[in-house]
Amino acid sequence: MTAARIVIVVAAARNGVIGRDGDMPWRLPTDLKHFKALTLGRPVVMGRKTWQSIGRPLPGRPNIVITRDETVAPDGAERVGSLEDGLKLAGETAASLGVDEVFVIGGGQVYRDAMSFADIIHMTVVEADLDGDTVFPAIDALMFEKVSEVSPPRGEKDSHGVVFTTWQRRTGSGSLEL
């Protein structure tokens, strides 16, 4: 059991696209700063493909990589065999650090599986419809309610405008505990 809130953090185009060919189909320094501010000092859980696309451990955060391939030994991260094991380890790590959140940071399949566990979703909506091969699942408005929406100024190096949204699990909608 973990007392830490399970938080999904994702950037998605208006049409749900989150990736193309193992990368993000945009350049958004404004969102990267937002992502860092949310996750710094807290455990991050990700799938193998996301780990490989980042190419290194995210500094200042315990990195946990989900893969069933036991030959994968992610340098600078812990390897686990399932999302449940990753969330359990992240919760234990969060408790040892004295923080109350763990972050699920991708990719597509991990996000789909994590929706049933998530307490909060921080979604950056990229103000464009883009082509891609990986999408974020639709947020069920019966399970989650939008509690915040902020449109920051577009940074001069941003390829698109963004809207930062926060969704919270509705009371009584049945978050799973590990």
TrEMBL record:
Magnesium recorded as keyword: no
Enzyme Commission number, as recorded: 1.5.1.3
Keywords of the record: NADP, One-carbon metabolism, Oxidoreductase
GO molecular function, one term: dihydrofolate reductase activity
Entry's Gene Ontology BP terms: dihydrofolate metabolic process; folic acid metabolic process; one-carbon metabolic process; tetrahydrofolate biosynthetic process
Pfam families: DHFR_1
Signal peptide: none
UniProt domain DHFR: residue ranges: 5-169
Source organism, top-level taxon: Bacteria
Catalysed reactions, semicolon-separated: (6S)-5,6,7,8-tetrahydrofolate + NADP(+) = 7,8-dihydrofolate + NADPH + H(+)
Annotated pathway: Cofactor biosynthesis; tetrahydrofolate biosynthesis; 5,6,7,8-tetrahydrofolate from 7,8-dihydrofolate: step 1/1
PROSITE patterns assigned: DHFR_1, DHFR_2
Protein family membership: Belongs to the dihydrofolate reductase family.
PANTHER family (UniProt xref): DIHYDROFOLATE REDUCTASE
Protein task: Key enzyme in folate metabolism. Catalyzes an essential reaction for de novo glycine and purine synthesis, and for DNA precursor synthesis.
Protein name: Dihydrofolate reductase
